[in-house]
Amino acid sequence: MPVLRPIHYRKFEQFLRAVGCRLVRQEGDHRVWDRPDLLRPVIVRTKKDLPVFEIKSNLRTLGIDTRQYLEIMERL
After folding, report:
1. DSSP letter for each residue of 34-64
2. Chain-centre distance of CA 33, in angstroms?
3. Would you tell me which of 7, 16, 39, 60 could form a disulfide with 21, CB atoms 3.0–4.6 Å apart?
């Protein structure tokens, strides 16, 4: 079974675009992504690799489970 691994922030941003998010703004090294149905924005730090705990937190915000995330990432 595939597991979550740290991923480069640009690859994660490709995923965000694929699920309908748009970049709202950048403040320092944080990029703020939004989608009309979200209760709060998705925050992505622009450091080289995002750790697994940040990916999981953002997936909870998006309402996407790990399996769906991995399926979408395979297609990208």
Report:
1. E-TT-SS-EEEE-SSEE-HHHHHHHHHHHT-
2. 9
3. 16
Rounded CA Rg of the chain:
12
Q: Where do the structural domains in the chain lie, given as residue ranges? A: 7-75
pTM tops 0.85, yes or no: yes
pLDDT for res 52: 94
- The whole-number pLDDT of residue 76 equals 86
Candidate CATH numbers 1.20.120.160, 3.30.920.30, 3.30.430.20, 2.40.290.10; the one for domain 7-75: 3.30.920.30
- CA–CA distance, 46 with 8 (Å, rounded to integer): 9
